Amino acid sequence: MKRYIEDVLSGRDIEDKGLKEKILEIDRRIEDSREIERVLRAFDGRYIEPGPSGLITRGEGGYTTYR
């Protein structure tokens, strides 16, 4: 699986088009979530705005945490 992910994210094509689409979709969601940026802000002791909860791989939107 790791090889497929690396291939797709580096721009190489794979035979399984459905898997390629899933990998690209999850990558897009991770980028859109600004997860890495927020972790770095936390390490720096800065404020992190709350975002949607839930797994990023489950789909669009999230569930409110009522914080």
Q: Termini, distance in Å? A: 37 Å
Number of helices: 3
Rg result: 15 Å
Give the helix/strand class.
Answer: mainly alpha
* Portion of residues within helices: 40-55%
Largest sheet geometry: none
Question: Which stretches are poorly predicted, pLDDT < 50 over at least 5 residues?
Answer: none
The SSE string, one letter per element, is HHH
Task: Kindly describe this structure.
- The structure is a single chain.
- The protein is mainly α and 67 residues long.
- It has a domain at 2-34.
- The protein has helices spanning 2-9, 17-33, 35-43.
- The model has no long low-confidence stretch (mean pLDDT 83).
- It has 3 helices and no strands.
- Helix content is 51%, strand content 0%.
Q: What is the strand and helix layout of this fold?
A:
Blueprint: H1 2-9, H2 17-33, H3 35-43
Helix pairs in contact: 1-2
